[in-house]
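If your schedule permits, I should be very grateful for your opinion on a structural question. I have a record of one protein: its chain in single-letter code and its fold written as discrete structure tokens. Would you kindly read the sequence against the tokens and tell me how you understand this chain to fold? Thank you for your consideration; the sequence and its tokens are set out here.


***
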Amino acid sequence: MNQHVQRPSREALESREAMKAQLVGRQLGQLPTPAAVLDRAVIKRNCTQMLQACDKLNVLFRPHIKTHKTVEVTQLQVGHSNRNVNIIVSTLAEAEHVADYLKDCRSSGKSVNILYGVPLPPSQAPRLGALGKELGPGSISVMIDHVGQLKALRTFKDVAGFEAGIFIKVDSGYGRAGLQPHSYALHELLKTILSSNDSESCGYLHGLYSHAGHSYGVNNPAAAMDHLSDELDGLRKAAVLAEALMVEADGSNEPKPRFVLSVGATPSATSVQNLIQGDLASEGVQAASIRLRECIKQANLSHHVELHAGVYTCLDMQQVATHASPSSDDPSKRISYTDLALTILVEVASVYDDRKPSEALVAAGSLALGREPCKSYKGWGVVSNWGMTSRAETGCSDWEVARISQEHGILQKLTTATSLGLDIGQKVKIWPNHACIAGAGFGSYVVVDSDLPVDRRDEVVDVWKDSMLPSMLYDDIDLHRQDVT
């Protein structure tokens, strides 16, 4: 029996409350597809594990919100008891989306700082300044890796009414952005910033920032920890240069400010969890852990070590392939499928049992799943065991996304063993290779909670809107409530 529900207006789609009224209480099998599904319980575990590790190691933590772009997950990343609300964004839309939450934090006596995580494009300075004016002094930091970007800080200051904090981007080997620790360009950029007098200054040096994106290539926790140690070594060298230039600029040997040394990427940042609750039995991991502890200790003597990470909240197939951190579900084991909080709900549109191996078509392609590779297999997503038989050795189903185009995904059966087939109209859940890319294709997430009783784990308990456009859930379709047995 189908009960027709009127399609919401475009205006209503932008209202979280309107979407909740339409979706909360439904079963996943009743939802239109494709839909992005978050497991609240898993996200809470992942966020708690990261905060606890940083607290025990006496390091700061600055979560990146680009993976999910939601207020709700940002709150979990920060933690309710944290008095320092420091975050990173990749777009100003993300920052503006969480601005009300940040204002509430400030009103309650917490300090707030947003780091705009892209070397500052001059055209964004007025908009960033307007956000800074709204949030108040000290609320904005920018990333700089070229002297030509400094001019935009004057525009920011004119609009915001205060100077921006500056993080200099240091290239730790990833090669995407930043300056190498021993480069002449870094020397000149530091010298320009530190030699500005008060009347000329439009920004102050807050810290040094490195992103170990190449740590995605690791295969074990020792390699991930070594990446983090390498980052800290590089930033400490850059900090020594900055201190020497400060002495040269003011001619004083007075104690210098403590910089923030911000390091990480999800594999390298989460690898610190091994120091707290991971398996350090192997010789390689022991050596890497000893080195990392010493690097953190030495860096904290003169500066403040800060870790940053983003996709750790949801995790994905790329992160499972790194084996970098303990599972938040069972810390005695490596990260696994039980730690993945994001799945993409899709519908089987056709089946091809005559193909060898068997294949099926789902009405979701690269716009829903992304098109990011994963080093551990050749496909574009793994079909979870939700409502299907599992391969005992992995806990996942017998199906992967073998081929992909814009709105089409081809699932391919991996084994010839007897198992449940796929039927037209069946809903399946896919773990994407890269959660940041897959999640960006939707304007909102439907939320479930695996901590609920078994018979309620497929029930939608909330809707979390992100900073993107209105949800794909309602794009050119009618919404139907179906009785699902």
Notes: The chain has a mean pLDDT of 89. Residues 10 and 475 are 9 Å apart (CA to CA).
